[in-house]
C-alpha cells in the first residue's frame, strides 16, 4: 500500500489513501433530489452469470427483478476488499472518479460497491452524516430540476415509491451541520448506469446493493466525499 495521501480541502481530518492509485472522489449536489439519468447502451461483454446477491427479490414491497447479465461490469459488483481509505470503521467513503463506495469495516476490510455518479457541474463534497434512512422512498424533484425539466412539475409534491421511482428501493439522506446537503445514496431503476456519470446528481447503487448497505449503516454514520479536482464544486 502506498503512503497515505493528505487532501488540502479541509476534508483530511483522518488518513485517506488508496493502493496503486490516488483516492480522489466527489459527487453532485445541485438538483441532487433529482437523480434522473441518461439512457445507456447495454454492456457488450462475454456471457456472465448473475451471482446470488443479484438475484430477484420477490418478497420486497415492490418485487425486484434480478440484475441482467451484462448490465453491470464485474468490477462494479459488490465485493469485500482490503480497506484502501484509512478511515475508521463505520465510515462511508465515496470515490467518485473510480465509481466506488466503501463501507469501512473492522480488521482492515471494506465492503465495496459500484456506483453511478452525477454529471459534471452538480458537485458537492465534504464530511457529513447519514441523517435519515428510508425504505422505498418518495422522490421529490427539487425546484432547480423542475425549472430545467418542466415535465417533472407533476411530481412537485412527490412521486410515490415503486419500481419506476428514481430513488429505487432504499435511500440514505446526507446532512452536514444539521442542514440537508440534498446529497443522497440510493437505489436505481437503471442498472446500466452503474460505473457511469449520467445522473442529475445523486450517488446510485444497484437496488440489491443499496438494500445491503441500508442494512449495515445506522443513522448518524459519517460519510466522506472527496472532490474530483476536475470537477467544479458548487
TrEMBL record:
The active site is at 186 (proton donor/acceptor), 202 (nucleophile). It comes from the Bacteria. Keywords: Cell shape, Cell wall biogenesis/degradation, Glycosyltransferase, Hydrolase, Lipoprotein, Peptidoglycan synthesis, Transferase. Pathway: Cell wall biogenesis; peptidoglycan biosynthesis. It holds the Pfam family YkuD. SUPFAM superfamilies: L,D-transpeptidase catalytic domain-like. GO terms for cellular component: extracellular region. InterPro entries: LD-transpeptidase, LD_TPept_cat_dom, TAT_signal, Transpep_catalytic_dom. Residues 90-226 form the L,D-TPase catalytic domain. GO terms for biological process: cell wall organization; peptidoglycan-protein cross-linking; regulation of cell shape. Belongs to the YkuD family. This is Lipoprotein-anchoring transpeptidase ErfK/SrfK. It comes from Cohaesibacter gelatinilyticus.
Amino acid at each position: 500500500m502506498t503512503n497515505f495521501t493528505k487532501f488540502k480541502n479541509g476534508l483530511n481530518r483522518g488518513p485517506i489513501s488508496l493502493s496503486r492509485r490516488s483516492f480522489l472522489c466527489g459527487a453532485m449536489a445541485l438538483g441532487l433530489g433529482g437523480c434522473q439519468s441518461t439512457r445507456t447502451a447495454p454492456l457488450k461483454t462475454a456471457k456472465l452469470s448473475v451471482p446470488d446477491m443479484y438475484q430477484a427479490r420477490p418478497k420486497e414491497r415492490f418485487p425486484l427483478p434480478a440484475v441482467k447479465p451484462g448490465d453491470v461490469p464485474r468490477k462494479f459488483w459488490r465485493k469485500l476488499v482490503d480497506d484502501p481509505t484509512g478511515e475508521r470503521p463505520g465510515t462511508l467513503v465515496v470515490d467518485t472518479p473510480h465509481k466506488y463506495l466503501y463501507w469501512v469495516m473492522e480488521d482492515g476490510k471494506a465492503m465495496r460497491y459500484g456506483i453511478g455518479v452525477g454529471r459534471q457541474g452538480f458537485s458537492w463534497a465534504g464530511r457529513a452524516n447519514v441523517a435519515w434512512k428510508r425504505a422505498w422512498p418518495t422522490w421529490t424533484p427539487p425546484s432547480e430540476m423542475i425549472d430545467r425539466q418542466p415535465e417533472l412539475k407533476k411530481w412537485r409534491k412527490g412521486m410515490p415509491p415503486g419500481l419506476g421511482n428514481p430513488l429505487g428501493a432504499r435511500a440514505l439522506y446526507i446532512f452536514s451541520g444539521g442542514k440537508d446537503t440534498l446529497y443522497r445514496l440510493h437505489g436505481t431503476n437503471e442498472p446500466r448506469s452503474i460505473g457511469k456519470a449520467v445522473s442529475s446528481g445523486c450517488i446510485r447503487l444497484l437496488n440489491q446493493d443499496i438494500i445491503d448497505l441500508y442494512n449495515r449503516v445506522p443513522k448518524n454514520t459519517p460519510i466522506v466525499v472527496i472532490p474530483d479536482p476536475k470537477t467544479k464544486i458548487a
